[in-house]
Amino acid sequence: MRNTQKSALPSQPLLRAVGLSRRFGGLTAVNDVSVDLHIGEVHGVIGTNGAGKSTLINMLSGEMPPSDGAILYDGIDISGWSQPKRARAGVGRSYQRTTIFQGFSVFENCRLAAQAALQRPWALWESAATCAASVGIAHEAIATAGLSAASKVTAGSMSHGQQRQLEIAMCLATRPRVLLLDEPLAGMGAEETERMLAMLERLKQAHAVLLVEHDMDAVFRVADRITVMVNGQVIASDAPEAIRNNPEVQVAYLGDAHTS
What we know:
The protein is an alpha/beta fold. The chain has helices spanning 53-61, 83-89, 106-117, 132-144, 160-172, 190-203, 216-222, 240-244, 247-254; strands at residues 15-24, 27-37, 41-46, 68-73, 76-77, 91-93, 178-182, 208-212, 225-230, 233-238. The protein folds into two domains: 11-90 and 178-260, Rossmann fold (3-Layer(aba) Sandwich); 100-175, no CATH class. β7 (178-182), α6 (190-203) and β8 form a beta-alpha-beta unit. α3 (106-117) packs across α4 and α4 (132-144) crosses α5 (160-172). The protein starts with 14 loop residues before the first strand and ends in a 6-residue tail after the last helix.
């Protein structure tokens, strides 16, 4: 059984979004949303399709600028930073669609990710494939993701669940402190879901994790805090049990299955 006792969180969040909004012409996809991400916490974000969840992640990761609001990372305003600059600073993300190199091995996928984050353009005499730092980081990321036994396996031959694990391993190879995970459980079976949830429990010990997910049972099991979005706005943000018992959330999203 999962340990439900929460450790005390630091007063200063590692990543903070304050009043974020994003407009596309006359459409407001995200409206005045604020979230805090702490190391030691999985912060779940739930909502129906079109609620603004992926747009929120895109703004936090730097792939889309906010129309209003601010994003603070370790107390620094990074609202104007590009996605590569945020990634180098420690903001990592995964995507709804798998973005691995199908023809490469698990190790090569992770080594390339580590190499991209640890660029050494001055080392002209050294083969990138033999860079000790990149190799070490890749093996560490693979182990953390639980894929050490599959290190030499070609990525395209693995199961869907293992490929999702690999994508997170590649993200870990960039040495992030924040993990923005966009539906990492999509399409997984029960056994694969269990492995991913166990990994999230491990990862939160050293990372601030934002989890966007449609699997409600999984979110309520792994999240320390849940934010509920409807039509681009936050209608509730609280501990899982408080969210489960929130009448507005029950009506807007969860339904009868989670009200008993």
